[in-house]
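It would be a great kindness if you could assist me with a short task in structural biology. I am sending you one protein, given as its amino acid sequence and as whole-number tokens for its backbone shapes. I would ask you to consider whether the tokens describe a fold that such a sequence might reasonably adopt. The full record is reproduced below for your convenience.
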Amino acid sequence: MDSLSPAMTLMLESRLALWLDKAADRGVCLFLVGGCLRDALMGKKGKDLDLVCDKALEFSQQLAKMHNAAWIPMEKDPTLPSYRVVSRENPHEILDIAQLHGTSISDDLLRRDFSINALAAKVEPSGRLGRIIDPACGRADLEKKIIRQVGPNSLADDPLRILRAFRFAAQLGFEIEQQTLNSAASFAPDISNISGERIRTELFLLLNCKKNHAQVRLMDKFKILDAFLPAIIPLRGLAQNTYHHLDAWEHTLCAFLNCEEILLDLKAHLADCALQTEDYLNQANRRAVLKLGVLLHDVGKPATFSIDPASGRISFWGHEQAGILPVQQAAQRLKLSNMEEKLLLLIAEEHLHAQVLLGQKVKEKTRLKWFAKYGQDAVIVLLAAMADTLAKAGPAAPGDIQQEKAKAAANAIRDFYNRIQAVLSAPPLVTGRDLKDLGLTPGPDFARILNALREAQNAGELADRPAALKMAQQLTGERL
């Protein structure tokens, strides 16, 4: 990893040529830096090209004008200006251009977060790349597969870098070296001073990684989660009833691991519906929201903890409703979108109810009513319920029974995609116009009758439109 391979050099120079061929006399000192070089040294094609120059504002605007590209001021690092230039012809071709920090490129690199990102190569006027500049020994750390802070103040300068360390560890499969972990623990409380938008962005990048349970465990060990998810703190050491073999927080972490393992092999659990579930999760950050929802699914338990004095039995009646406020607070702190907050609340409120609905004695009509209420979002709740169920192994919840319950949740997801979704999307057999023709005036009764008809249709109780009209006449006659 001492130098770029010829193939990677050619790839980077070709991408740069798309932007710089018209700017040979640009009059700026320009360097390719950071993640794109790191990825190239690892034999990977990075998404964006990161550049540093001494006239970032003027140069970025010049490039945008020359190429009729979009120009966007960025908040990539709060300590220095940065600008994004995006090709209108190919939106995947992006330049991020930051102002040189300090008097030299070495000064700039030594102010960065981690050694593996403190790399640069000069971009010559010809568009060719010069030798790699590596003042923090990042190439050696790439070889060792470690995340190491550039200097003792790297994390203090921007505490969001703490989350970035764990995100890079998850993305690259690297280890965080001990001194960097110690610094992360020391400066973790300062994360609370960072804007929710920045925390959310970094947290979701971490949670969207395929494997991040080890990093979440490590963040928990060093109390880093506490800075932006304080609702989890009372879960630590909270005893549970005989359905559980772990305290409330260890159960949560076990559920998180289960969730990760389910997502890693959806086909094993969902067979023919794995791709549909994958497509659903890949949209609008649902995968990250699911994992965050599992971390927060039991935050209502501390407020509802109770012990029966006679039997000594522990209970958490109503913990789903008690969890609404802390989950809302977490969503607002992280500046989640309305949809993300809605899904997060849905997991907290419905994860236990979903497990009850899977019971053999529950009527099909009741189950269909639940699916009709939440639509495809019922899938995210059922996935959380599977993870939660598999994390219970107390004497009152033997493992084989929990496996069967998890299988029932998986079957419910398959049933939704293979049958229920079509049932729910079928045109109504009776409409509001039909009720008007029967003499009913729009109002509360009007809506109740339509709902009753729809529920009967979904449950297969109405064979056709004549049967539906007959039921409508009966219901209308009762209301007139």
About this structure: DSSP finds 24 helices and eleven strands in the chain. The longest strand covers residues 94-99. The chain has a mean pLDDT of 92.
